[in-house]
Amino acid sequence: MTELKPSTKNKWWKHPDVKKTFIFWLIFTPAIGIFGTQFHVLSMPDPASEVMGGVIGLMRLFTWAAAPVAALVFAICATALTSSRHYGDNPPADADHQISNSPRANATWIVVSAMLCLFALVTGLVVLQKEGDALHEENAIHVNVTGQQWAWNYDYADGARSEVLYLPVDVPVVFHITSKDVKHSFWIVEMGIKMDANPGYTTETAVTPNKIGVFNVRCAELCGLLHAYMQNKVHVVSKADYEKWLADRSALEARS
Amino acid sequence: MTTTMNHPAAAAGKSRTPIIERLNIVTAFALGAISAFVVWRLALQFLPADSEVRLFTREDKITLLSMIAWFVGFMTGIGALVAPFRWVMGKDLSHDENMFLAGKDMGIKRYFRYTTDHKVVGIQYLIITMVIFGIGGILAMLIRANLGTPEGGLIHPQAYNSIVGTHGIIMIVGTIIMVTGPIGNFIMPIMIGARDMAFPRLNALSFWLIVAAAIPLIWAQFIGGISTGWSAYNPLAGQAPLGMNGYIMFICIFALSTMVAGANITTTVVRMRAKGMTWNRTPIFIYGVVASVALALPAFPVFFLSQVMSGMDRALDTSFYNTAGGGSGWLYENLFWIMGHPEVYVILIPAVAALMEMAPVFTRRPLFSFNVAVMGIAGISGLSILVWAHHMYISGWAPLLNAPFMLTTELISIPTGMLFLVLVGTLWRGRLWMTMPTLSIFALLWNFMIGGITGIYLSDVPADAFLHGSMYVTAHFHYTLMGAGLTGALASLVYWFPKMTGRMFDKKLSWISFWMVQIGFNVTFGGMFIVGLQGQPRRVEAYAALFNRGNLITSIGAAVIMSGMLVLLYGVISSWRHGVVAPMNPWHAKTLEWTVANPIPLENFAVLPVVTSDPYGYGKEKK
Ligand code: HEM
Ligand SMILES: [Cu+2]
Ligand SMILES: [Cu+2]
Questions:
Q1: DSSP, residue by residue, B226-239
Q2: What is the reported pTM?
Q3: How many domains does chain A divide into?
Q4: Which residues of B330-366 are buried (b: 16+ CB within 10 A; e: fewer)?
Q5: Same-domain check for residues A70 and A126
Q6: Quick check: A181 pLDDT over 50?
Q7: Which of A27, B134, B179, B278 has the largest count of CB atoms under 10 Å?
Q8: Nearest-CA distance from A95 to chain B in Å?
Q9: A106, A147: one domain
Q10: What CATH number should be reported for the domain holding residue A169?
Q11: Chain A contact set for B332 (CB, 8 A)
């Protein structure tokens, strides 16, 4: 801080604080990127659909895009904290400059944040578009989902009914969701889809499960007393098993 | 004691104490309670029974009517109607009466009356904010206690839901008033060189409305609670127990308070700045306060209305939100978030602006890019009324609007980034004077960075389809509301404590509590991010074993926050009572509030100041 020479006046990058900040930035960027992505990716469940894979990918991408900016802010903080600290009940001497503006810094900052913003928007829109198309999949199976306090009911196209969701692997599904009483939210956790169940309206969402297994359906909207228990399993099974289950179910329904 | 109420001027003979001097918090509570009881009894007697078998409707009417009666009685009893009554009679208050209302030579009693002095109102706000945070904090500890084990079960689910809802709404109210209330009222008028607020009586009104609002909320706890979460979505709210009426009344009265305060503060700043205080020389904190209340001005009438409609659906069988009757729950969601999103910036902006105000003081250099700071505040305020439906991406209301709302939401990160630029720019090459407010600047940058980046994930529609309704959202908004907002408010408390109380805030205690709160906070909500990502929904009283670890982390962190807050509370009490007596300008700052003596005279300035430069002239000219 002390060896300020007049010659540094125009060459701002020669200032010792700049070097320090740059070094901090070089360390912080990968640290934040790696920690941030690991934190998110490790915590999230293993994807059971392409959609969920996409969500995890987006989070990873956004984290890396944000890392340099966050790192710059923290690097400046670290530089300030390590350069000049004063403890005591009286103030330190005033700083050795009166910089109250820097059009160049302002402009750079605003342009960079605008570009990051645009980037986030475009990536989001691309994925959104894909998911919108999924609703119009030709060979999709259709399931009517009805929420009520505090359980889910599933109606299949050919008359089968169930309180537990069965889905064939690798076949697109379109859910038509509604509610009998208050708002619920239909969330298949590992597939990364969620859509509110509104009384009096039907809403749609779609997904293609790509993994055989048992996954979680949880209600994601406070719906009264037993909201916490409004959860269930979804079984993703092979196509053959699914057909069999469906036939059993329809027969059962036809008998009753 | 209240029988003379109806003939104030006439009855006030020389020998008797005039009515205006008899009214205080005791008469207010008494009159409120009496009128509530009378109306309750009358309604019970005379309201016709419901024709069909309906849950609640008649009881709803009775509850709401009694609460309204409480409200009217309380406001009358505190003296809010004295002046309007005089005007109706064609008279005005005398000078002596106005001085009495300002609390002249009254000592401690003025804090329990309809006092108009902005400094008294500021202290009243400070106390009520602390009470709110205290109660909200205890409720939070109850929540964490219940979530200590996956099965929950410590608290009955209905009570648990109610605790969550009450915690949520009172903390929101607490954070809304935490800066604009105490600091905005006490410090702001002095900072702009004024003798009082533009409408001193409205100032008193805005505070006492909050007290009046508190009772229906407490009342609600005994008649079924607020089992809907703070957002009180319909149709769930329509089917909730009678306690919901308490929420409705609470919001309506609080919204009135906010509107009154907003009009008052805006007018004061626009009209009453000192000579020479051009917009370029107006401190950035003032911009923050004005932006906050100016955002509240359009937002809170909507909140008010949404609750009136909610109450009508319950009590009068209308169906604004009832699909079967032609309404829609989506209408409620829209109204709620048209208020709700601006409201989060109502909370955030003054807290950040306060830290911007302190940054030059504690770095001993000018504020970096004042213009960018103003642009950032203005940009956020403008954009924040255009983003509300990002809370409804997956509600199914209007899927086609998701893309435009994603655009506006992500655009907000540009003005938000400007606030960061101003703060780091001011830290750049500064001489740090290490105090608790200085540390808070760093804490804000850290927490708000995390809150902001997670906000970007949430604003991305596909990612939100996974994250919405999960603990991740809860963690996000705690990072912004508490990590950024409350951090700024606590720094404000320590920074302006010497001016507000005449004593310094104990340095050691402020540091200890700072570290405890900040570390506890990051542990708490770091853990909450984890369980959110793992898939734990919000507002649940039991959870799958999978979420054990994260919840344990969160509960431990919460205990640390609570301990840190207790240290802070001890610091407030002990410093207020016997802290080091503060000099006039302990921080060697350049804004006007530091030019008035301690204790501050009733009218602040004997001679009004004239301003000739901005208050950020720190730093030495380079040779
Ligand atoms: C950087 C800018 C921010 C962005 C992009 C952002 C984005 C979002 C989004 C998209 C949601 C909805 C999440 C969902 O329910 O699925 C949300 C929720 C929320 N945000 Fe932010 N946010 C930002 C800053 C803030 C700030 C500064 C505050 C408060 C001071 C705040 C408070 C909240 C609250 C209270 C909620 C949730 C309310 C609830 O559902 O109960 N946010 N945010
Ligand atoms: Cu639910
Ligand atoms: Cu929002």
A1: -TTTTTT-TTHHHH
A2: 0.93
A3: 2
A4: bebbbbbbbbbbbbbbbbbbbbbbbbbbbbbbbbbbb
A5: yes
A6: yes
A7: B179
A8: 5
A9: no
A10: 2.60.40.420
A11: none
